[in-house]
Design a protein that fits this description.
72% of the residues lie in helices and 3% in strands. It has two domains: 1-40; 41-107. The protein is mostly helical and 127 residues long.
């Protein structure tokens, strides 16, 4: 029992020496990392480092998503304007006067009918 008390006394004395020896030199040399109070906090320090890494990774991921979203919004605006332009060109080309001009320009050989279309009937019924 006396030996156990002696060992505890040595540990307390060692901790007191560690408290006294804290200097900038020990910080730069790395000997501060071997002190018992720092070693006791090591799991907590690792936890904090892990949280910091997760936070940094999450930040990069969020920034990447924001950049993609911005690029997609620009692309949607471009495609919307292209769709409007294409629809207006289609409306312009499909007008009867434009169709006649295109047929005459390409010498397809089509002409406008001289008489209107007739309705076909089958024994009194319209088809």
């Amino acid at each position: 029992m006396g030996i156990k008390n002696n060992i505890e006394f040595i540990d307390q004395e060692q901790e007191q020496n560690e408290v006294r020896v804290f200097t900038i030199r020990s910080l730069f040399s790395g000997s501060i990392l071997t002190q018992s109070r720092v070693v006791k906090q090591f799991p907590y320090i690792l936890f904090l480092v892990g949280l910091a890494l997760i936070y940094i990774g999450n930040r990069f991921h969020a920034e990447r998503i924001v950049r993609k979203l911005s690029n997609l919004q620009v692309e949607v605006k471009d495609l919307c304007s292209e769709q409007i332009t294409t629809a207006s060109e289609l409306m312009n080309i499909s007008r009867p006067s434009e169709v006649i001009k295109l047929v005459n320009r390409n010498n397809i050989g089509l002409s406008l009918p001289e008489k209107p279309p007739e309705m076909l009937t089958k024994k009194g019924k319209k088809l």
